[in-house]
Amino acid sequence: MKRILLAVLLTAIGCSTCHAQAKQACELVTKADAESVLGVTLEQPRPYAPFRSLLDKDFTKGMMGAGCTFTNVAPGKPRPPKVIEVGIEVRYSPTPNNAAVEQLRKEIDERTYEDPVEVPGLGDAAVWLGPANNLSLFVFTGGKMTLMIGPSQLDLKQAKALALKALGGPGKTGYVYGTRIPLNKPLLTKLGANPSQIDQLKHDLAAKAEAGDANAQLALGSLYQFGERGSDGNPKPDYAGAAYWYQQASDHGKAWASYELAVLFRRGLGVPENQRTAHELFKKAALAGYVPAMAPLAFLYEDANTPTSQHREIHWAVEAAQKGDPDGLLMRGYLYNKGWLGGDPAYYYPLAMTDYRKAAAGGSCVAMMDIGGLYFNGNGVPQDRMQAQDWFARAEACSGPGLKWVKEKSAKFREKAAAGRLPAVSQEATKLAAGQKLAMGLLVTMAIAFAVETARRPSKEPSGDVDNSGVQQELDFLREQRILEACPHTGQAMISSSPGLGCW
């Protein structure tokens, strides 16, 4: 009897999509149902075999019947005043595929210039993309079925209505899509008689964080990463603990947390290294308007080598530069320098120099190196070996953890410069290196101050991401250390201004 009741219960849970299983696309929506949604008289639906659909790998053809066209246009008949043509496609997986949504997002990222938007309350997961006159809706249900409505001139409301007809209802089965790596919650130690400020803050914030307070979750992540000091005065991070709370805050819409978690995944700090996860988190933060995530995302697109990666790289580099981000200015300067933003050398080299100088003023070591390259080669400026020597010296002097390659490449270049009788390296540039320890101290101070403020704030009080503009230059400088790396293929600097110089 129990088994019979269980079978009945499972059938009831899945019945909103059970009629759709293994049906061809034209069998999912009747002509009458489509007409009721679209408000026009349609011809008989026509099955087709999809080609280059986003539901398949590029340049592949689907099976006949996996697609269905609904239209009010027919050969030999007068053309209607309002032409309707809607495609419906369906795919089935023999076994549950929890990566289906991620796979679609990757296809969209690599084959279109659009970014998908989540659609709540439809299927187990759903997204839409495209302009108003070319919209596509994707619905995932049960781990085995994926439905696509479009691309077509329908609005989102009409596309959702067609999806509901195809699924026989909302299509919710409770299946969870996603391959996210589970992170362990850090354990709190019991407070002693005289707890440290950090331990007390962790306990004060934990209750709010457990209740879903995104600000408290973000503050805890920052505290675990930057709150503790070592004997040298620098942060003593608990990356695994930080990653857990950043993930919680990211799930609650905190773009800053998404960015910090992306950095951890990209570098494998406290979590397994995962470049795809890092990419998605950088993109999530950038789409939410978090400026520091935009340039790292542009750097990732530079390495991606897909049909759309250069377009996306330029978009995010320019977006970051327009908002004054040093890394964005560095990247836009690079794009100008390569001639990828149009014009001839007389036009783009001076613009590259302008962006590089602004980025260098914001603490970008790579921009300092690129300025030296422009002066050395005389690109957009009179050739000036003394200026080149000075800027390369500055770049070498700001070397530190994460920028070892700058020191090594600058040293190699200095050997080349020696043959040109360049003057000795100026010692004045060494002042830049001293700023690193100050910046690390500022990170600790900021993390504690943020934690104190959040612990005292009532949970119900709304708040956006913390404004850390007072130390933004120092933070960007440190983030550059964690993000800019030598080219993995050649060992050359990722931002190389002058081909004549070869590898730095």
Describe what is shown at a glance:
With 504 residues, the chain is of the alpha+beta class. Helices cover 50% and strands 8% of the residues.
Would you mind describing this structure in some detail?
The structure is a single chain. 50% of the residues lie in helices and 8% in strands. It has 19 helices and seven strands. It has helices spanning 2-18, 25-28, 31-38, 100-111, 156-167, 197-210, 214-226, 239-251, 255-267, 275-287, 294-304, 309-322, 326-337, 345-361, 365-377, 385-397, 404-418, 431-456, 472-483; strands at residues 46-48, 67-71, 85-92, 117-118, 125-129, 135-141, 145-152. It has a seven-stranded antiparallel beta sheet, with helices on one face. A hairpin with a 3-residue loop joins β6 and β7 (145-152).
Using brief descriptors, characterize the structure shown:
disordered N terminus, 8% strand, flat, alpha+beta, 504 residues, disordered C terminus, 7 strands
Secondary structure elements and pairings:
Layout: H1 2-18, H2 25-28, H3 31-38, E1 46-48, E2 67-71, E3 85-92, H4 100-111, E4 117-118, E5 125-129, E6 135-141, E7 145-152, H5 156-167, H6 197-210, H7 214-226, H8 239-251, H9 255-267, H10 275-287, H11 294-304, H12 309-322, H13 326-337, H14 345-361, H15 365-377, H16 385-397, H17 404-418, H18 431-456, H19 472-483
Helix pairs in contact: 3-5, 6-7, 6-18, 7-8, 7-18, 8-9, 9-10, 10-11, 11-12, 12-13, 13-14, 14-15, 15-16, 16-17, 18-19
